[in-house]
Amino acid sequence: MQLITKELLFGQLDFKKISSDADFKEDSVREVIILPILKQLGYLQQNIVRSKTLIHPFIKTGSTKRAIKLIPDYSLKVENNFAWVLDAKAPNEKVVNSDNVEQVYSYSEHPEIRSTYFALCNGLEFALYRKETNIPILYFEMNEVEQSWDKLKSFLSPTSFQVGKNISYDTTAATAKPTGFDYSTRPLLEEIEVKKQAAKRHFGVHGYFTKQTWNVVAEYIKNYSKPGDLVLDPFGGSGITAVEALMNNRKAIHIDLNPMSVFMVSSLVAPIKINELTEAFNRVMVAFKKDAPTTNEDIRKALEKYQYPTGLSLPKASDVKFIEDLFTNKQLAQLAFLKYLIKKEQNENIKSSLLLAFSSTVTKINRTYHNSGSRDENAGNAAAFAYYRYRIAKEEIDLDVSKTFETKFKKMLNAKKEIEMFINERTIGNAQIVKGTATNLKWIPKESVDYIYTDPPYGKKIPYLDLSVMWNAWLDLKVTEEDFEQEAIEGGEHKKSKDEYNNLMADSIKEMYRVLKYDRWMSFVFAHKDPEFWHLIIETAEACGFEYVGAVPQKNGPTSFKKRQNPFTVLSGQLIINFRKVSNPRAIMKANLGMDIAEIVMETIESIIAKNNGATLEQINDELIIKGLELGFLDLLKKQYSDLTPILLDRFDYSDETEIFSLRKDTKFKTHVDIQLRVRYYLISYLRRMERENTNPTFDEIIMNILPLLKNGTTPEKQTILKVLEDIGEHVGNNLWHLKKSGQGRLFV
Questions:
Q1: What is the pLDDT of residue 2?
Q2: What DSSP letter does each residue of 88-153 carry, written as one string?
């Protein structure tokens, strides 16, 4: 590698004399300073566009509404896409904290540019910005360019941007092996079949508001890490990530602000001897059955003698005001007595294990317990889990406390037996289960984590701390005002704004980047309809230094009760977005599809409906989000299409039974996008996918894959597809195709 020196770039130029040289103006900065930098970064003549004229998309002046022209000095192309813009300024002009920054930002935001980066250089200073911040991500004085060159090149060289990604998809997870495991080339996993109730350690022990599917998490852990690696989940929730990491011979860090989450996971993995735990349970049960309060007088005395939660206010949407109103006096008395007996146990791990069964009992012994109606009276759930609010049941069911506790104990015991081979006294040191915030991971050393799999809160979907008050109160777990301030949600009792949520999520991603090792992966699970949140994740992750690799749709199993209640506001599946932390991350490029965003949205919706003869909200949402991510129009999508539901209900038929949108009877597809543009849209998408799989398809394979997507409107002839293909692609070998490279056709904006 050639060492960069000032002499190599600028010859014998004396920077000290530039500021006092009246003849060294903006044009000198262009020719003497900027061009050598661009050349050394690796840009060829055809990749450097000088003084490109842009028409301001919004503002016109004068009575004649004369167009305002924007003219960046340099627009730099990578694979024919405008990757960044650079403006030259005279040495006496500022490149930070000035109107010049806003001016060049406007160039990067222009619809014909839409670049990730913009930069200014005045001959003495160089400042590089990402378009979402007004603080430079790189600033240096030209006299010290040698010290900043490697950083500059990592951001702006042509190889720092991605068009296609050389990764492959696999239908099964690659089993991690001690040898031959290359972190940098792990495959993306296709959708994994859900085995939700097959693991006793996760099913039936204790409810929670959301749970990832255990076998999906396990496959991701095995694919992106190897035995002995450290796996982090900073939004730990029910603990699926941590438990599955430990079950697969990894180390685990589980973090959550909710003390209920920390208690659940700590108690589940707490090592115990099965016979000693069983003996303790029997002691508690004998004492409970002997003296459990049942008469009105006994209940009154028990309420005076034993501690139970009282006086705590519930969220405003609750049917009752205080926590004690969620229970009958009998339920309060018997639960308080049962908890008193458990707390008498001396062994802390046994005590916490029994309290886990007790807490799960509280889930059913309360006035918000709703029976499902489909099975016996025990087949229900607390309203906080089912409805995300404390709703008193219309028909209150008085379940037997001792029988419910016994059932919950057996489920907890079966879970302990299932995990004891992998999680025991010898291995428990591999687990760190911590109450804390994802926005502050300072206690975790920099670049010490091997893999991150996390499922963060989705905006205002679930106010976890508000809804956990019933369990936290019974378990004597404290939630502070600071906890509420740090909780990454929108809305809730503390009425957090979308901006507050966005900022907390952004801070969390920055911390995850800091603690992750280089060439390691982060899988970010998200299920949100609003493209703005997806855009936030991608922009923040890229700004930190993550490289986006790909997104995969993943179902969660059978449709939830909440989904059946709210088919248009709750998504039953999710996308798993995969990032890598690499030294030279490549930014996502923006393909020029020749269509405006409205055409893209309708074309995508109608095509997915045509392909599948009807499509669910999840299928439509996933298709748009993934294409928005991979073809680079997510930033446009978030501005105009925060919710697809009104469009879908207005233009298509919907079946309550199948949850499928379909074309209305006796109507045709309404998109009138030019056939060649439609073909172009799907060809680029398909060939991009093939590039990521490191595969060159044949023409017949291309036809087979894109024709089903082109059913809406006039189906094109093969010759039409071939004509477009020849414009954007090129032959490789024997009838194989791939996308054209830089300068070989107008593929990107």
A1: 60
A2: E--TTS-SSSSHHHHHHHHHHHSTTT--SEEEEE-SSEEEEEETT-SS-SEEEEGGGHHHHHHHHH
